[in-house]
Write the structure tokens for this entry.
Amino acid sequence: MLFYFFLALTLIVEPWLEKFTLETLLRGLPVVCSFATLTCLVKRFDLYSAVLSTVLSVLLTPAMLAGLVLFGGSLVERLHLSILAAAHISVIGLQPFIFTYGLDSEAWSRALSFSLPFDDAYLGFLGAFVGAWLGAVPIVLDWDRTWQEYPITIVVGAYLGSSICGFYGAVREKTDAEIKLAAKLSAKAEKSSKVQRQAKKKLD
């Protein structure tokens, strides 16, 4: 299954990935931070929280680096590339989560135990890490492609995972809200109908 996935990736996405160089990752980090902050402001206009969550996500890069190294990332020869990858994953995975839930220990504990509601922030959080993990697979394949260079596929996987899961979470959250609203309106209509029946009964 994974083979067919990466075969499709090669045939469809390779022309774009050829232009996705390490220099692109380096130059793109400030853009990603700015975009993440603006995205939070669109969701909830709170400039202080949006900027603070971005800063905190960048400051948590060493923790993300430790996790990346534990999963096989380079610590000596390509340390600067590991730091760059960790920074990207930290911003796209942690920034929306911190903006939504802050640094509350209970929220983080529930996140690690998979007991938080599956909203866009939490699913984006999980998707970034799962995507980065799956993105490491093409690196070891003997395809001799420039985009297989560490850590391009890891970062691309994190972006894809976060985007897809975050979008699903947003759609699911909206659907749940619509279902709750419909149930509330239905209950209100039923209550109103009941009151009208009782009033009519008294008149009779």
About this structure: The mean pLDDT is 79.
